Amino acid sequence: MRTLNRLEFHYQTVGFIIQKKFLVVNTDCIVIIIYVFIFTLGRMDKNGFEDVYLDENKLAWSPEFSDPSFFHIGFLRHSPDCKLVAYGIDYSGSERYTVYFLDLETKEKLPDVIPDCYEDFEFSNCGNFAFYIKIDEYERSYQLKRHKVGTLNSDDVVLYEEKDEMFFLTMTKSCNKKYFMMRYH
Q1: Is 103 exposed, middle or buried (0-12, 13-18, 19+ CB in 10 A)?
Q2: Under 8 Å CB-to-CB from 85, ≥6 apart: which residues?
Q3: Are 44 and 17 in contact (CB under 8 A)?
Q4: Measured between alpha carbons, how far is 88 from 95 in angstroms, rounded to an integer?
């Protein structure tokens, strides 16, 4: 078995490095190519080396998250200035996320924690605010809220609440990033 060169692609807009390892196994003139995709959440530092800032396996085994029987980072959003990253962790498999914020310059987790969120999450263009959808006790996304980064989630502002239990909310940003679009289904 031999390993070919490792290829790295750096996507500056999202801050991901995708590593592809191509393993070639030659058995009786049969060549089998196995593709292994390793996704690391990182970026290239000034010297061209990989700077990993979020490792799902290390996070799952950290003392803070050692109890849950299920662990999954469901979404990850970078602030427009790429100084912050927000990520949602699902502890139960129910797609009910708790959002955490990470300062990419210091690699320190911010004290901001937002529980019971849906996967629709966006930063404002200035990066000072986060917009998210809250989930109720029936797993229905029903409230659009605005969070000021650096404050308690109890201070978050409800921008819209869908009171009809037959509907749920979704949210996204427009392609030009100027507008938030909310839908109720």
Answers
A1: middle
A2: 15, 41, 53, 54, 76, 77, 78, 79, 101, 102, 104
A3: yes
A4: 9
* Residue 161 burial (CB count, 10 A): 11
Between CA 141 and CA 184 the distance in angstroms is: 9
**Who contacts 170 (Cβ-Cβ below 8 Å, separation ≥6)?**
118, 120, 133, 141, 182, 183, 184, 185
| pLDDT computed for residue 41 by the predictor | 59
CB neighbourhood size of 180 (10 A):
16
Distance CA 112, CA 126 (A): 18
Contacts of 160 (CB under 8 A, 6+ apart): 143, 144, 169, 182
CA-CA distance, 171 to 73, in Å (whole number)? 19
Place of tokens 């790429």: 82
Per-residue pLDDT of 38-74, as tens digits, reads 344 566 667 777 777 888 888 888 888 877 678 889 9
The rounded distance, in Å, linking the Cα atoms of 20 and 179 is 35
User: Is the model's pTM score more than 0.85?
Assistant: no
